[in-house]
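Pilot study result, target chain (136 residues):
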Amino acid sequence: MMGSVNTEMLIDVWQRLLADPRKSWVLFEHGTCVVLTAPEGELAEQATDLMKKFGPARAGSSAGDFGVIDPEHVEGWVVTGHHDDVLTYVGPDEPEGRSHIAVGLFGRSKRHRDGTELHVVHVEDGRGPAEPAQAS
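Predicted structure:
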């Protein structure tokens, strides 16, 4: 079963995984991160819209598909889904087993919770400062 989630640890993990400071991303409570490739407006709102559509898992459809990535510089795994920019972190002590099937199913269940609960815990805005208005 899923225990309490350490938000600070998750933020640190995603900052290491997404090392490019120009990336904008939004973290949800259970470890799912939405990378915004075309960030615009309110980032949490943009990410929430993506999570509503691509977060919930539906077995037997592409929404049930997953892949497992073993990152080089972070312990644990990243579980992918049917949207390239919706990724879920699974810590090394979380799944019952260490097989890609066990990790993937666990990550998919975390993504499903994030996609149905929609609780944003962190926004990383890599867009940089807005250009100052030019005086004429």
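One observation from the pilot: The helical segments are 7-17, 43-54, 100-117. A full batch analysis is planned for the follow-on phase.
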